[in-house]
Recover the amino acids of this structure.
């Protein structure tokens, strides 16, 4: 199964992919701090590539700050709870992730990790409601997302490119 083509887990830094970060070093420093201190940060902007590049760079730099690392999910089409939890099941290092939204939520409640959602504008209202539940149940989980617009999650900070 090609998860890159349908959405799902992709490497934080794709082979052969280069580019200039769409942020100054001061902006990047501020974003790194915002992720460490807050629960949700969304990078918005008109073009996907710069948003994706920036959230992947942040994830790569911060993964070691979280006991359970960073899980990066690329969302290329409409994504509901079922698709989101299935994508999380594919994250390296989570081979024993329980199946189903409630089981995944319980499992994540025990984690200290950064969840990166690249393409947040494709999340359905049900997936957003599940993320609200996740934030309430999992104090060690931080969410970093990229999208055309904010997700509207509690405590969300927004950085516009």
């Amino acid at each position: 199964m090609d998860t890159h083509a349908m959405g799902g887990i992709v490497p934080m830094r794709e082979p052969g992919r280069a580019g200039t970060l769409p942020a100054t070093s001061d902006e990047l420093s501020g974003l790194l701090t915002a992720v460490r201190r807050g629960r949700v940060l969304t990078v918005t902007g008109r073009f996907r590539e710069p948003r994706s590049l920036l959230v992947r760079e942040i994830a790569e730099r911060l993964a070691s700050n979280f006991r359970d690392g960073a899980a990066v999910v690329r969302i290329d089409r409409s994504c509901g709870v079922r698709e989101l939890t299935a994508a999380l099941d594919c994250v390296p290092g989570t081979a024993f992730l329980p199946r189903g939204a409630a089981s995944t939520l319980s499992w994540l409640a025990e984690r200290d990790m950064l969840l990166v959602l690249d393409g947040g504008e494709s999340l359905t209202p049900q997936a957003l409601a599940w993320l609200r539940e996740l934030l309430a149940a999992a104090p060690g989980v931080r969410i970093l997302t990229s999208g055309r617009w904010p997700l509207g999650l509690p405590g969300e900070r927004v950085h516009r490119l």
Summary: DSSP finds six helices and six strands in the chain. The first helix runs from residue 3 to 6.
